[in-house]
Design a protein that fits this description.
It is found in: Nucleus, Nucleolus. Keywords: Methyltransferase, Nucleus, Ribosome biogenesis, RNA-binding, S-adenosyl-L-methionine, Transferase. One of its GO terms (biological process) is rRNA base methylation. It comes from Crepidotus variabilis. Its main location: nucleus. The chain is of the alpha+beta class and about 700 residues long. Among the domains are: about 130 residues, Sun protein, domain 3 (Alpha-Beta Plaits); about 220 residues, Rossmann fold (3-Layer(aba) Sandwich); about 40 residues, no CATH class. It has 21 helices and 17 strands. The strands form four sheets. Strands 7, 8, 9, 10, 11, 12, 13, 16 and 17 form a nine-stranded mixed sheet that branches. Strands 4-5-3-6 form a four-stranded antiparallel sheet. Bound molecules: S-adenosylmethionine.
Length: about 700
């Protein structure tokens, strides 16, 4: 078994030979699929499978099983489409999610708690555990953060994956390790072994995370060379080549004919498998006379069908990865990420919180070495969004990925910090806690309705240094500036959180990405201008999104570097994550863009995320644009927005111009319209984008 497989998120499902003829339907979250094993989704218990999709092709078909798709959270109803917020802390949403998360627990099917803290009978809660809570000695000075213990042995046969997929120690076989783990679990927890066990787990997790990352990089590099791990179940000839008869890539006419009806799911599965295989060794395996792009086109069409994406988004996401890795990414989007909580250090310590939750029947562990406030919840007999500790503000239900930008921001006590797009406040409250309720945090969000949940969270978590406001972020720094640090957790497409919000699969168009990227560019320049280069302790901006697309991440960062010569990218301080892309599809970014960090569901077992950290320095004279230039640019911006169908917003005139190469066609078009409106004859178009 591969090194990555043991603790990694379960391997994507095997795409086996058909045994029945189901028709392919869109893989929407709310649909119940009763399918045979050939369609089984990856399960977290499937530890035997190698982490690689292609290897799993060798597996024998399993017994018939019924796969019930998870119920997805409904898309936001607040009209905030496209905001791409990845936290789940809106109170109602949290309760619903917590309820659905644990409704299948074999211990309890109780309703999620809907009342207030006063309605809770704590004694009854304790009784529910069916015994006296265990007492642990957390006062040992051996270890600040002991391994979290369970009040009773886990009922899960196998635990879900840890965040940041991990593999095991090189000296032991997987079986030996499993045995060791089991022995350890049976061994009583004592003061002396508690700390040691915690340290061991964290060391393993760190080593494994690195290994997993390395393996994926190597796999991407070797894509064209090493494809021996695709087992076609005897369809290869003795030279390892595919039997030419065994797979025929449909012609354009055949595809057209198929498009008329609903394609057979097994045909699609097989074709995906074959296309991946051919593309991994194209020269040797391709059908004579067929081009690479034909195979890619077929594969993308099948991915869109199979996973239920619109074709545009399937292609956009596919292009981010090697062929094999793309499949891993799409598969990972079908699986929920681990439930995680952040300890609110304004109210409690992680060890105390863990003890309190363990006593309520919650099975948890620290998330990993990189955070000393995160806990991963494996199982709970109580609704995790409605425990007394939750209501008392001891923790925030928060995706692990959303800790990252705050860790990168590293706010210090007594600073002035701006959180420019802050609702519902997962990151704001984290910032306030790191500042130990000193200094001041301006928590801004353009959407007034969303500031309600933001305010509620700020109160619940006991943050006393936060000022809530509701401006369009593009009005900063005119509203207020001179911050030591600014966080711009930008509104985005949410392509990193598809497992939470499957509606992204079908509701994002090319125009959405154009508009979002444009807005993000406007916001990032305003965020930069809100940072005080004179700050004695800071002078930093962190830009983040829960999206994996380049136009919302590296392209925005690169744009900011070009437009603001007084900023430079610095190390995020995050211990893991892939380097940001310095070139993509013919576009080159500034080499320092490699300092940004990308996080992926299939690599790190957390939501897809992007983090960039800038240091803002004093402006050098002569590098900024004249006021006239800026005003001219603003006019062009508004025209640009109209040109792509958006509405120009009433934004302060310090807003910034757009003149990067990618915006050029739009800007030209806007100019032509202006000239026409003035009765002038516009010049002929140059290099018109066919998509525009
Ligand atoms: C990714 S979410 C923020 C999540 C938040 N940082 C947290 O951790 O809970 C993006 C937010 O940007 C807000 N937003 C959208 N456009 C904005 C703008 N022009 N100015 C400021 N905020 C905006 C949305 O209302 C949304 O709440």
């Amino acid at each position: 078994m591969g090194r990555r497989s043991k603790n990694k998120q379960a391997a994507p499902e095997p795409l086996e030979a058909p045994s029945s003829h189901k028709k392919l339907g869109k893989r929407k979250a709310d649909v119940d699929l009763d399918v045979d094993s050939t369609l089984a989704r990856p399960t977290k218990k499937n530890k035997d499978l190698d982490g690689k999709w292609k290897k799993s092709l060798t597996k024998e078909p399993k017994a018939k099983i019924s796969v019930k798709k998870k119920t997805e959270k409904p898309p936001s109803s607040n009209g905030d489409e496209g905001s791409g917020w990845e936290d789940v802390e809106d109170d109602d949403v949290t309760k619903v999610e917590a309820k659905s998360l644990f409704k299948n627990s074999d211990e309890s099917d109780e309703e999620a708690f809907e009342g207030t803290a006063d309605d809770l009978n704590l004694e009854e809660d304790d009784d529910m555990l069916g015994g006296v809570p265990q007492h642990f000695d957390f006062d040992s000075d051996e270890d600040e953060e002991p391994q979290m213990v369970r009040s009773k042995k886990s009922k899960q046969a196998k635990r879900p994956e840890k965040i940041i997929p991990t593999t095991s120690d090189a000296s032991n076989s997987d079986q030996e390790e499993e045995e060791e783990e089991e022995e350890e679990e049976d061994e009583p927890l004592t003061r002396s072994n508690l700390a040691a066990r915690s340290r061991k787990l964290e060391a393993i997790a760190a080593a494994e995370a690195e290994l997993a990352d390395e393996e994926l990089r190597a796999a991407a590099l070797e894509e064209d060379e090493d494809d021996d791990d695709v087992d076609m179940s005897g369809e290869e000839n003795e030279n390892g080549d595919m039997d030419a008869e065994s797979f025929h890539l449909p012609t354009a006419q055949e595809r057209e004919a198929e498009a008329g009806g609903v394609p057979d799911v097994h045909t699609v599965q097989r074709r995906m498998r074959e296309c991946v295989r051919v593309l991994s060794k194209f020269k040797r395996r391709a059908e004579a006379g067929r081009s690479r792009s034909e195979y890619v086109a077929q594969l993308v069409a099948d991915i869109a069908n199979y996973y239920g994406y619109n074709h545009f988004l399937a292609e956009k996401l596919f292009q981010l990865f090697s062929v094999n890795e793309a499949i891993e990414f799409f598969e990972a989007n079908e699986v929920s990420r681990p439930v995680t909580i952040r300890t609110n250090t304004l109210r409690t310590r992680r060890r105390d919180l863990a003890q309190a939750l363990v006593n309520r029947g919650v099975n948890l562990e620290p998330i990993g070495k990189w955070t000393n406030v995160g806990l991963q919840v494996f199982e709970s007999s109580v609704p995790i969004g409605a425990t007394p500790e939750y209501l008392a503000g001891h923790y925030m239900l928060q995706a692990a990925s959303s800790f990252l930008p705050v860790v990168a921001l590293s706010p210090q006590p007594n600073e002035r910090v701006l959180d420019m797009a802050s609702a519902p406040g997962g990151k704001t409250t984290h910032i306030a806690a790191l500042m130990q309720n000193t200094g001041v945090v301006f928590a801004n969000d353009a959407n007034k309705a969303r500031t309600k949940s933001l305010t509620a969270n700020i109160h619940r978590l006991g943050c006393k240094n936060v000022v809530v406001c509701s401006y369009d972020g593009r009005e900063f720094p005119k509203v207020i500036g001179g911050f030591d640090r600014v966080l711009l957790d930008a509104p985005c497409s949410g392509t990193g959180v598809i497992s939470k919000d499957a509606s992204v699969k079908i509701n994002k168009s090319e125009r959405d990405f154009t508009l979002l990227s444009h807005l993000q560019k406007q916001l990032i320049l305003c965020a930069i201008d809100s940072v005080s280069p004179e700050s004695k302790t800071g002078g930093y901006l962190v830009y983040s999104t829960c999206s994996v697309t380049v136009d919302e991440n590296e392209a925005v960062v690169d744009y900011a570097l070009k437009k603001r010569p007084n900023v430079k990218l610095v190390d995020t301080g995050l211990e893991f994550g892939r380097e940001g892309l310095t070139s993509y599809r013919g576009k080159n970014f500034h080499p320092s863009v490699g300092l940004t960090r990308r996080f992926y569901p299939h690599v790190h077992n957390m939501d897809g995320f992007f983090v960039a950290k800038f240091r803002v320095e004093k402006k050098v004279k002569g590098t900024s644009k004249s006021k006239e230039d800026e005003e001219q640019a603003i006019q062009v911006d508004d025209d640009f927005l109209r040109a792509v169908g958006g509405q120009p917003e009433s934004v302060d005139s310090t807003m910034n111009g757009f003149d990067s190469d990618e915006d050029r066609p739009y800007l030209e078009d806007a100019k032509r319209r202006r000239m026409k409106a003035k009765g002038l004859r516009p010049p002929p178009r140059t290099n018109v984008d066919p998509n525009y």
